[in-house]
Specification:
mainly alpha
Length: 112
């Protein structure tokens, strides 16, 4: 299999997975909206916007920055520095994730 066919196959799988995720999102969103009514939907949208921002930062931005730093050090064959970068930044990301998760949990308890 050539490289271009492999890339097309991988892109197709990602596109199908994205479509499937959107369909699943539609399936749960309609009954949820009917059950929680207008007030619950207001709380849900507010919390979801905060969640989406935190997810964007913690799942996309930080790992991309870490991988860029690590790939630069690997290209320069500075393998000791890779470990020096990776371990602390992984800890920072975990702390960031857990602190936001705890904050959202406390907000949910406060609003409930």
């Amino acid at each position: 299999m050539s490289r271009s066919n492999s890339i097309v196959k991988q892109a197709s799988i990602l596109a199908l997975a994205g479509i499937l995720v959107r369909i699943i999102g539609l399936l749960y969103r309609s009954p949820l909206t009917a059950m929680i009514l207008d007030e619950g939907n207001g709380y849900y949208s507010t919390a979801y916007n905060i969640y989406a921002l935190v997810l964007l930062i913690s799942s996309y931005s930080i790992p991309t920055a870490i991988s860029k730093l690590i790939s630069e050090k690997i290209a320069l064959k500075e393998y000791k520095n890779v470990k020096r970068i990776f371990v602390p930044l992984l800890g920072v990301q975990q702390f960031y994730y857990l602190s936001w998760r705890h904050s959202l949990w406390m907000l949910m308890l406060f609003l409930h």
